[in-house]
Amino acid sequence: MEAQAGEPAGARTVSLPELGQRLLASRLALPVILVLTFAIFAPSLDDWFRSDDFWWLRASQDTPIGEYTIEALDYRAADPVPEFIFYRPLYMISFRLSYEVFGMHAVGYHALNVALHMAAVALVWFIARRLVSSPALASALTLVFALHPSYTETVTWISRGNALMMMVAYLGTILCFLQYMDGGRRSLLYYGGSVLAFTAAILYHPNALSLVVLLPAYVFLIARRPVEALRVRSWLPFVPFIVLGIAWALIQNWVREEYGLAETFKVGFHQYSNYGQYLGYALFPVLPSDWARFDLPVEWRTLLQGVASVVVIGLALLLLARRAWPYIGVFAVWWFMTALFFNTTIIITQAVPAQLYMPGASVALFFVVAWLWAAALLEEEAPKAREIAPRLAPWFLSALLVIMIGLDLSHLSDDERSGIENERFVATLREDVPALEPGAMLYVTNPPFNLRVFNSDALSAAVGLYYGDVEARAVSIQELPEIEAQLGPNDVIYQYQPVE
Are 98 and 71 within one domain? Predict the structure, then answer.
């Protein structure tokens, strides 16, 4: 058949997915991924405050920055945010500094979260280029991390910022350590940078303690040979990390015992079932709010998560059995499993997005390793299918990207709705109740759900921001007769009418 006029003989039209694959292999991939990431999360800049955010705002409003900083570093008391009984001192200080800059303007906090996520995405890209030989797959790995739907709430919820800040420091530790392993004149500078970044990471969140085992895993599985782990001298670079890690683990253990959290974070057999849910959420990225929306029975949810867990574990076993990329595969699985260790007990709660964000890069790395294994299997066992696979791969990646973006937009819409509800509630309350006396109690019917999901602490903090030293409590209509009978002289009952 003759070529069409104006088209060179043998020329082939490049499809959009194939063009995208070529882009992923180029150095333009990172800027494009960052632009796409910003475009997806830009709507969150218009969101307002919600839930736990009000704890932090109220504490920042009440406590001078110097006193706040001292209290944040003191692990013996729950100050300066009494409702926040976890010890994350660097995040407390970071939020207080943000309050100095942004005050009650939510857009600044949201912009900071989006910027932190984009910084983490860039760090993942640089690390992926070191770990994965294919530039296109390194960029695909980064794209999975950047847009994974399970992490959306981590970026859009202001008080999830500790996970974002920790992740930047966590990835910075890894990248600096990789640079140190390369040697050269600046190797000691990179080593010092990795120790400082590790210190910052654990001060943001104890999950960063996984670096104590992750860095040796990289050295003995990828950079060097596993047999070198038997030499005592090979462990010398890890001594500062191990010492800092042990000290921080002891402090965290004391805090959890003191605040009654020991049972919540107890290491034991329960972790096996929780890891199953963890693996399921990672591969099947649907959040608890989505289950409620689609009204799926618990049995179906358990089944889907269980199947996802079996798939992930099966891939890991196949990688080891076939000895296909054994070291990068083992490293991916090791990172994947250790990243969550200190918080496996809370994976079943609504905190899932924040807990999944922390091992997010390892989830993406595991995805790429599985992709490489599948390609090798096809080449070995089904050569004809191997010829078709390169043509199907761009379409598969495109479909995956569309699904991720669709779920992202759905979650963004849910998060926006919570902020709108809170903003309307506060505006209506201030209009209907212009003032409250210090020490008064405000009883509220039908406040936004996110302000009373566990108790009335977030509601009380939100009210206190505008009325000063008062308390608020969510009550039902049925409780009103009893409350009216014992109402104090300055107490107020406010029957809020939410928009349906």
Answer: yes
Is 202:208 a contact under the CB 8 Å cutoff? Answer: yes
Q: Tell whether 351 and 456 lie within a shared domain.
A: no
What is the C-alpha separation between 51 and 420, in angstroms, rounded? 12
458 shares its domain with 364? no
Last residue of one domain, picked from the residues 355, 390, 416: 416
Q: Do 321 and 441 share a structural domain?
A: no
Poorest-pLDDT segment among 22-26, 151-155, 443-447:
22-26
The yes-or-no verdict on residue 317 having pLDDT over 80 is: no
Q: Mark whether 368 and 410 lie in a shared domain.
A: yes
> pLDDT tens across 378-423, in order?
777 666 666 676 677 777 778 888 888 888 888 888 888 889 999 9
Q: What does 18-42 look like in DSSP terms, one character per residue?
A: HHHHHHHHSTTHHHHHHHHHHHHHG
The residues that bridge with 493 in the sheet, in sequence order, are: 443
CA 402-143-145 angle, 5° bins? 105
348 and 443 part of one domain: no
Residue 182 phi, psi (nearest 5) = -70, -20
Distances in whole angstroms, Cα of residue 238 to Cα of each of 194, 385, 500? 11, 45, 57
Q: What is the pTM of this model?
A: 0.88
> How far is residue 209 CA from its own chain's centroid?
16
Q: What is the pLDDT of residue 218?
A: 93
Closest CA to 448 of 427, 477, 419, 476: 419
**CA dihedral (13, 17, 18, 24) positive or negative:** positive
Supply the range of the domain harboring residue 123: 16-416
Provide the residue count of the chain.
Answer: 500
Total structural domains within the chain:
2
The residue type at 456: S
Neighbour count for residue 26 (Cβ, 10 Å): 12
Do residues 448 and 305 share a domain? no
Question: 235 and 186 share a domain?
Answer: yes
pLDDT of residue 350: 46
pLDDT at 351 over 60: no
